[in-house]
Amino acid sequence: MDRVHSMQVFVRVAQHLGFAAAAREMQLSAAAVTKAVSALEAAVGTRLLDRTTRRVALTEAGRIYLERCIEALQALEDADASLAELARQPAGTLRVTAPLDFRESLMPVVADVMAANPALIVDLRLSNRVVDLVEEGVDLAVRAAHALDGRYVARQIARTRLAVFGAAAYLRAQGRPAHPDELSAHRFLVFTEPRPMLELPFRRDGEERRVHFTPTLLCNDGDAIRIALRRGLGLAVVPSFLVAPDLADGVVEPLLTDWTLPAFGVFAVYPHRRFVSPKVRVLLDALASRFGDGTADPWWPNPPSALNHPAP
Question: Among residues 51, 68, 85, which one ends one of the domains?
Fold first, then answer.
C-alpha cells in the first residue's frame, strides 16, 4: 500500500463526504478510491468512515485521524516547497479562500503573483463561509473581521471602513440624512452573511447613537447589494472595499462621515507552521505590497482629515 497516496485519498473523501466526488477530483476510479480507503483503515486498525447507501460520515477516530493526515501531508508539501525556496521559485498548488465580495480587490494581486510565478497553480475558493484551514487543506485565507481567534497566524494587510452609503438618485428622492437618528426613516439594503447587521452604534466625540435599520432588501450577495445601491433602491451599510469602484466614480457617496462605525481589519490568515512555504510567502508579500502597512483603508478615496477618526 502507498500510505501517502491512501492518506491523500482519505482526506479528499472526508472533505467531500463522498467517494464519487473524491474520485472525480483525483481522476481515479471509484473502485480505486474505495480500495485506498479500505487499505488505510486496515493499516490503522479502525474504521475511519461510516458508509451507507445515502451518505458518508467521519467516525470519531476518522475526525482525529483526518487532522493528523492533513498536518502530515502539509509537512510533506512544505518539505518539497523548501527545495523550491532554495531556487526561489514558488511552485505547486496554492489553496486560497476569500469572501466572495473581496474578489475584485484580490484578483489583481493573484493575477500578478501567477504571472510572476508560472510554476504556481492557484486553487481559489470564494465563499463567505468561515473555512477551517487545517481540515480543508487551505494554505491562506483572506478574512475581514473585528478580531480573530488565536488558532492561526494572522497578518493584518488593511483596514476597511464601515459606513452608510447612498446613490445620488436615492438622496434626491428621499433626502440626505444629517444625523443617525434620521436613518430610521430610510430604506436599507442589508447584507445577510455571516449575519445581518440590523443595528449598529454610531459614535462621535464621546456620543453614541444606536440605530436600527429597516430592510427593504436582504441578500447574501454583495454584488446584488451593490447593484441595488447604485440604482437607488435604498441606503446600505457596507465595508468600503465593496463599493470602492462606485466611490471612485462618484456613483455612490458616504454619509454621516463625521460619525464612526466599527471598522474591520482585513487579515491574511494561515495555519501555525514553523516553515512558511515560498508559495504562501509570495502571496503574503504581494498582499502587503498592494494594500500597505495594514493600518490604512486603501478603498476610501482621499479622505480629508475629518474622515480619519480612529476606529472604535
Answer: 68
How many residues can be counted in the chain?
Answer: 312
Instruction: Please write the tens of the pLDDT for every residue from 138-178.
Output: 899 999 887 776 677 888 999 998 999 999 889 999 999 99
Would 245 be classed as within a structural domain?
Answer: yes
- List phi, psi (to 5°) of 288: -65, -40
Nearest to 256 by CA among 162, 175, 179: 179
3-state secondary structure the chain: CCHHHHHHHHHHHHHHCCHHHHHHHHCCCHHHHHHHHHHHHHHHCCCCEEECCCCEEECHHHHHHHHHHHHHHHHHHHHHHHHHHHHCCCCEEEEEEECHHHHHHHHHHHHHHHHHCCCEEEEEEECCCCCCCCCCCCCEEEEEECCCCCCEEEEEEEEECEEEEEEHHHHHHHCCCCCHHHHHHCEEEEECCCCCCCEEEEEECCEEEEEECEEEEEECCHHHHHHHHHCCCCEEEEEHHHCHHHHHHCCEEEECCCCECCCEEEEEEEECCCCCCHHHHHHHHHHHHHHCCCCCCCCCCCCCHHHCCCCC
Q: Which of 229, 247, 262 is the last residue of a domain?
A: 262
Q: Alpha-carbon distance 49 to 72, whole Å? A: 19
For residue 292, being part of any structural domain is answered with: no
Q: Are strands 56-58 and 49-51 parallel, antiparallel or unpaired?
A: antiparallel
Residue 103's Cβ-count burial label (10 Å; 0-12, 13-18, 19+) is middle
pLDDT band at 311 (very low <50, low <70, confident <90, very high): very low
Model pLDDT for residues 97-126, shown as the tens digit of each residue = 999 889 999 999 999 999 999 989 999 999
Q: What is the largest CA-CA distance in the chain?
A: 72
Q: How many domains does the chain have?
A: 2
Domain that holds residue 243: 162-262
